[in-house]
Amino acid sequence: MRRRGRAWRGVAAAGGLVLLAVCVGIVAIVFQARGLQEAANVAQLVSVLLAIPALTLPLIAWWRRTGHPPRPPASADLARAEDVLTGLVAEQWRTEVVLRSLGDPAPIPVRWRLTDRAELMDHPKLVASGKLSFTGRSDQPADLAKAFRRLRRRRLVITGGPGAGKTTLAVQLLLELADTRASDEPVPVLFPLAAWDAGTYPRLHDWLAARLEQDYPALNAAELGPEVAAALVRRGRVLPVLDGLDELPDAARANVVTALNRSLADRDQMIVTSRTEELGVALKEAGDVLTATAVIAPQALKPQIATEYLQTCLPPRPRHDWSPALKALRRSTAPGLAEVASTPLGLWLIRSVYIIPGADPAPLAGELGGDAPALRAHLLDHLIPALIATRPPSDDPAEHFRPRHRLDTHTTRRYLAYLAYHFHPATTRDLAWWRIAGTTSPRLRLLARVASGVVVGLPVGLVGLLGLELDFKTVPWIAASLFLWSVAGLAIGRTAGSWFQETPGHADLRLRGRIGVLRRAIRASVGTGLMTRPALGALIGIAAWVQIWLAGGPVNERLAAGLTAALTYWLGVGAVQALIQWAEQPTLTAVSTPRSSWRADRTLTLLRSIAGLVLGLVVGFATWLAAVLVTGQGQVDEGVLVSGLGLTAGLALGLVLGRHHAWLACRVVTGALAIRGRLPWRLMSFLDEAHRLGLLRAVGPIYQFRHAELHDHLATAYRRSPSPDDRS
């Protein structure tokens, strides 16, 4: 929010300077063409109209400061919001569990117990009311949920090494707590902890509220009242499951530990996941443990249990003989295989690369089975082709968990390696599609801004130059056309710089059941428009007045055109703002996924563009028509020219205005990357296919690699690419 405010202040300052330059240029052109007296008249008119924003903006600020604060949500609204959130969370993670095959054929039976490292956990008497005990197995999440509920403050840290099943256990606990949630218990919601910027949100509750509104737009539905997400968090009605403390940058982990202790009240609950070593370093640097929090760790899977699990995954009559590999694992005669199979990640890799494709398991019991790092790298190298080969595409809509198109192994690996490297594991694990533009080089971002300004500003200037075909062969007209092009291009190029930091918006164009929302949006737009739009309308009127003056029109024609342009703009923008506000209002079933957030932001961009085109066309045509009615004369080609100017200017206005340009920025940058072979043209379709294959996992509107080890492996492979061009 602070970055957005700074960006808009910069845009406003640049816009003010551009406007001042335009006005000075107009007066100079008039002085050169018509003399001092006419220039003085124009200067007086311009100064009066420029005074309107100076008077209205302080009134707007005063009106916002003295406006009545929104009423706090009622208890019934909060109870309904809790039920809505519980349903959305449960549905979301049940789908994700199926995509991740966490229960196929059965959950891996990892045993969990309290950590042996006393320095990681608070005093037992603060963690539990009686004797502290916490044991259970991943395939029996009900017992683990009961153990969690017995904790004094219901705070838990799940630790373990890479691939130990920390996130899997967090998801299993989340679903169990959601399914058995009592009315007085909070709603468990998973948040990627690496996304918490403690500098922007010093208090955990503020960040949780912002993430809830982003990940679950249904909480912003009009039926629930204002600021429901913040109220749920403040009143302890949300149980945050904070995944990945270890995924934060090294310098940030200790700060987050301190911020957690400062943010949590006595009644606040939480679940955190972290690798053991990273947690220990963070606690040591913070000089404290997480208050009243139990810390559990997994036991390594014994060879006998790992062997039994792999036997369960095998078909009754496997294509190849698995006896040597299973015997070597059971007897630990292949130490590398035993080490890899001691974690859930290792078992999943063996199953995905060997069992499901029906591959010959002989290498597992051979030389490769004696070297754990080599075996792990071998499995990660063969994971992508194995998943593509064993999950054929399907067009059946009922097949929700099958890819829609067959991906090429080589290009899939190249695209994912590019993303893994540029969303570097040292900084983030979140593949947020709206952040892809920000990961590119400054030179490419500058080129995208310039290209956006030229492409959008060009039609404005070209339509202006069409006046040369209508006998407006004057230096002022050419100067005005170039002015239009420059102003439109500068506005787009300047504001495009902030697009790389914007987050996606929400959009719902379904009219059924939302008529009341549209009526409220219209009323709100009328109320705010009385304060904000006269200033902008006056500027549009100036542009229309100058346009008719450059064409040699009389004073009454200029006046009619200016007033009509200002009035139609004032009314038209009100309708556009009401339409966009209505589209951004979510329903009670709205949940944000990577694909839905992509489509929603694209819809907002197209809606603004189309509305800008229509508004510009209406303003331009109405301006010409008013001039014709006043003077009693006019040419059709002049009307076409004026309408064309309004059309192209409206497009530029529609693209610049609004709060959400993430899709537009992403499309511009990924188009350039697609030309260079870094990413596919249909980026979101590709990411969705990778998710369906099981290479990615979804957490709200972001993707992550299925396992951090896969992320690390692909990033390392990209860095070692033999071609320097591949690493740019």
TrEMBL record:
Domain NACHT, residue spans: 154-276
Keywords, alphabetical: Membrane, Transmembrane, Transmembrane helix
Cited InterPro entries: NACHT_NTPase, P-loop_NTPase
Spans through the membrane: 12-31, 43-63, 446-468, 474-492, 530-550, 562-583, 604-627, 639-657
Database matches in PROSITE patterns: NACHT
Domain of life: Bacteria
Keyword Coiled coil assigned: no
Protein name as it appears in the record: NACHT domain-containing protein
Origin species: Nonomuraea jiangxiensis
